[in-house]
Amino acid sequence: MSKLYRIGLRESRDLLRAGDIRAEDLTAACLARMDATEERLGALLARRGAEALEEARALDAARAAGRMPSVEEAPLWGVPVCIKDALTLRGVPCTAGSRILENFVPPYDAFAVKRLREAGAVILAKTNMDEFAMGSTTEHSAWHPTRNPWDTDRVPGGSSGGSAASVAACQCAGALGTDTGGSIRQPASLCGCVGLKPTYGRVSRYGLLAYASSFDQIGPMTRSVEDAALMLGVIAGYDERDSTCLDAPVPDYAAALAGADLRGVKLGLPREFFGHEALEPGVRKACGEAVDCARSLGAELVEVSLPHTEYAVAAYYVMASAEAGSNLARYDGVRYGHRTENPPTLEELYVRSRTEGFGEEVQRRILVGAYVLSSGYYDAYYRKAAQVRRLIRRDYDEALARCDALLAPVSPVTAWKLGEVHEPLQMYLMDVFTLSLNLAGLPGLALPVGFSGGLPVGMQLMGRALDEAALLRIGKSLAEALGTGGQAAPL
Amino acid sequence: MALSKEEFLHLCRLAKLAPDAEKREYYGSQCGNILAYMDKLAELNCSDIEPLYSPVELNAAACPRGGLHSGRADEARRIRTREEILANAPGRGGEGDEFFLVPRIVEGRA
Predict the structure, then answer these.
(1) What total of structural domains would you count in chain B?
(2) Residue B72 lies in a domain
(3) Given Cys at both, which of A15, A174, A261, A484 links A20, Cβ 3.0 to 4.6 Å?
(4) Exposed/middle/buried for A409, CB within 10 Å: 0-12, 13-18, 19+?
């Protein structure tokens, strides 16, 4: 079988279990694909080729010896995956795209990573990202930018741009990303793959290098909705080490897709998104065609309003910067990470280590965070943003009381050229369609719906708390009808 | 909104960052633009709105069993060895390299 690396997560799992392919061959095919594409993409950071091959061989040997675990015990048995560099994998360098963590080797696995390993997945590499997940292009990695596999002059989106590019270019069957303000959905959309931001609290954040703790969520990035469902089922669930992790039953998301159908499904179209002045005509057209397709499949489309949308960017950047400033206070040059040379005093140790170790965007957000939390400004900025956050959540709750899910564009534009957007504020405004869902803490599924000028266009389904199954069912029906499931970049 | 030089240096002290003169100007003007944009929040009257600092409790309401726990039992557990914890330290001291090393912060006997 040629081009083993193109096989999706679910299909490769089934072929491996049936003995039609070997785990070692599949892993080797993905590693070879990395070798063939990585120079053009820059999607990866630390790679673990030899260890991954060894693990795959051990799986093949277990199968030969009749010791293959059941599919329930190991739903990702032998499947090659990558994980974003914001997540710890024991013994493998973890930098979150930052020079300040250049030599950090974590002594433990993140909860989601541990779940992947227990499910039998073979982890091939860490993926590149904007430093501490602060960015929308993966240009703000301290190491190198990542490029979009559909056009390598363009950005893959961010901050999980490495995961998106790697999945879209078939370096792996699926990857973990993290979404604080759109960092799974936007790169998935710009790279033509599927990305799911779960409900805040659905997946434990233990082992995720924190950016903004009341927003961060870990989720799957894959080439099909079905694969995202399978991966979510593995990483979701209660973990006592994250106090915000919800103790809620984990549905069989993959099984919930059986018989998915759009007949009778009510989808809300947020007027503030479709009417937004920044929405490019080509993106608007592709989204309109997807809406028509949903209607032709029997869905009922209704217009809804999210009236506080225009305040989402301001509220998000106040709160996320405040949380970032607090979270990143831990990088002090003492316990781990970069330490300046010969500091004369403890204060100089802190200040110089941080100034040398953090990149520009991170320093900017820490400074903004310090401002909005400082005496005299706290009420006007931080508390006010939190009040607006409640209004935004109410908007979603009211809209979702009228329909099963909302359907909207992910990004107002397709992938832009590297270096094209310089100004931080201009970059923040590009996140206008993703941030509000993070403020609300609700789930969102980005899926490819078409193209504009040869570049992928994505839409997101947004739903009620813990109702990922509904988004996956709707997404699967829509992607199948549009023919966008399983697509790979022509690299 | 322009940040004064003093205001910006105060922020740097709070953030424990010391950008050089060129960067100070650059960050200062960008942070000023960002903060000016954030002033948009002042347009809304939220006097009777309870702040939402985290969505977790609202999401917990969707869980059949309540969803949130107060955390694990308050019992000490040894989950890492000292060596594991010290392994990433950029500076170590002590006879067996068993301490994090920092510059002297108290005067006294060497």
Answers:
(1) 1
(2) no
(3) A15
(4) buried
